[in-house]
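<instruction>
Derive structure tokens from the sequence
<data>
Labelled lines for chain and fold:
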Amino acid sequence: MDDIWRVSDDDLWAAMRFLAREERIIAEPSGAAGVAALLRYGAQGLGRVAVLISGANIADSVLEKVLSGS
């Protein structure tokens, strides 16, 4: 391992919102962590990047909150 990138809860919500709106993928917070890191730090200079996205195990009320941005 070369690096560890930390993301905040807000970063996770933003990644979940991005995935839902732009890619039509519903992901739970931990499943969106890789995307959150790329959105926060970028991927320049990393070469090819693969991100695993998992889980749609999210309550409707939480998804509604994430999508509304509140």
Notes: The mean pLDDT is 90. Residues 9-23 form the longest helix (15 residues). Residues 9-68 form one domain. The chain is about 45% helix and 0% strand.
